[in-house]
Every structure is written in C-alpha cells, then in structure tokens.
Amino acid sequence: MRSFGSFRTQLRTAVNQVIRGARHVRSAGRPLSTKAARCAPETAVESVASPSDMLKDKFNRTHTYLRISLTERCNLRCTYCMPEEGVPLTPNDQLLSRDEMSRIASVFINHGVDKIRLTGGEPTVYPELIPFIEDLASHSTVKSIGITTNGLVLKKKLPDLKQAGLTHINVSLDTLLEPKFNFISRRKGLHRVLASIDHAIELGFTPKVNVVLLRGVNDDELLDFVELTKDKPIDLRFIEYMPFDGNRWNMDRFVSYDEMLERIGEKYALTRLDDGPNDTSKAWWVPDHAGTLGFITSMSQNFCSSCNRVRMTADGNLKVCLFGNTEVNLKDVLRTGATDQELIEVISGAILNKKKQHAGMFELAKRKNRPMILIGG
Q1: Residue 317, strand partner residues
Q2: What is the C-alpha to C-alpha distance for residues 211 and 222, in angstroms, rounded to an integer?
Q3: Residues of the chain under the 50 pLDDT cut
C-alpha cells in the first residue's frame, strides 16, 4: 500500500505538471499532456495573460460569476433534481471545509469575480452558512452575494443572513398546491416556503422565484404563477426542464419558452423588458403587476455566448459549464499546498477549455453528468 506521503508527492508532481502545462498553453497554444487538467484550449492562445485576463476564455467571455455548492445534503427530494433513491453522499473529509471554500473564493475574487451565488444541495442546512457569507462580504469588490434555496427553513434565518451580507435570494417553488408540492418534492412544507418569500419581501429583498415547468405535472398552474406577480414584487422565472442524471428527463414533459409565452399571452398583455448583458433569463412584464416574469431557455434558446458563470461543487470540483461532464479537482490541488498563483493557473486553464456552447437537449439526455443535487443550481 502506498504511504500518504508518497501519494502526496505524486499528486503534487501532477499538479505542477498541470500548472506548467497551463502556462505553456497560454504561451504557445500547445495541448496539455496531463489528462487530469482537461484544460487544453481548442485554438492557440498567443501570450501569457495578465491577471485581469485569467478568467477569460478563448471566446472572449470573462467569468465574473461564481456559484458555490456548499453541501450535497438537502431536506427535499425534488423529482427533477434528485433520483428517487437518493444519491450517495461524499464522505465529509472529501468535501471542502469552510476555510478551503473561502480560500478558493478569494482567489476568484482577487481576479475579478464580483458576483457569488451559494447553492447546494440546500445551502440553508450548511452549518457554517452565516460565517461563510461574512467571509465573502469582507471582500469590498464583491457586489452580489446570493443564495438559491427551497425556502423551507429560510424565514427564521433571513435576518441573520441579511446582517451577514446576503444581497439576493432565489427560491425554488414548483407549485402553489399543497398536494402537488408534496408529490414533486416528496416532502411537506409549502406554507413555509410561501412564508419565506413574503418575509424576504418584508426585509427589502426582491426574491427570484424559480419554477421548473413540467407538462402534466405543474404546467396547468402557469397562469396562476403569473397572477402571483400581480401583488408581489418578485421576479418569477420559468425554467425549461433540463436533463440530468437520475431525473428521468422526457421530451413529453418539456414545455418550451415559446409555448409558455403563447399560453400566457392568451390571457395577459406582455411587455418585453431589457435584459442585462449576462442575464440567464428573458425578462417580461404584465403591465400594472408588481412583479416581473423571466424565462430561462437553456434548452430551446441557449445563452452560451454571454455565459460568465463557473461552478464549484461541494467536493471541490470546478465545472465551467453546467451541462459539461468535465471537471477540474481544485480540492486536491489545494491540499497539496498549492499557492494562490498555482490555483489561478489551474482555474484559468480550465476556463480556457470551455466550449463555445453546450450540446442540444437530446444529446444531453444521453450523456453522463452529475445529478443536479450534486452540482448546485
């Protein structure tokens, strides 16, 4: 059996090869030989990048938005997110510690990331959520710290979250009917989610409410959700059903952006709003409503050309694309004693290898990828 010291030395050697390879790619455009890096660009990159360019890919997309999955654990079992039988959880010693997450986040922030979203699993069950938000908020250049949550236990945590530095809230809610909520999430608690949304509004947030629309499951509530924006200042966002491992994706359940828009337009007059340069949703408004509508069209009309997002999983893997199955293990790099410069070299090499766009939904349905619960929304 290999000793831990021997393993550590070999891993350290591999990391150094990754870093040297990433530098070589930047200077000469030649592919990496280290399989673990998976970060060779498709076209040559002519010169060594300045720090401001370390998060830029070869399609000139600068990545200033980091999504961090804090935990693999969740207190719901939503059908589109987690297999019915659940998922094997990573041993605790193989998950990033709070200090490790803070260190990696700081490297990203120091090179231009100014927007961070915390996901899971369910981030509100992460025991160090408050101090971790405080860690992030201590960086003066961070403009936005958000959380994507199912809202079950959010209400009682909201005052402390806001005090710690939380600026934005996304709540996942796929039905307004209690029996259907119990069916979709395999748990009870609709009234608690609705109470969390109302309390967030009371505290001055404008919550984003995310709805994954499934034909034959909750698409009959499409107009009921739109009506929710009449009196509530929320950003209601309909998400096209996306294929991930274990969610039994089926085209028969898919409802496209065009169909949603047409069905809503039969009852409501709709006004198109301007989208930000890196927005994932297409924004609309029903005149005289307090809230707005958005449509996340990952499957029917992808927005890859303006993507500025990367994801870090709870076990320390960097995913430069939600739908890509290629990952770079930052945890192992970190635990070999890598410097911040070595970390950013590995991160930068991975971003350089980001593809122009993800595959279509039928191809994605055939591919292996993590269940959504192990990626983070």
Answers
A1: 329
A2: 9
A3: 1-51, 244-247, 359, 361-362, 364-365, 370, 372-376
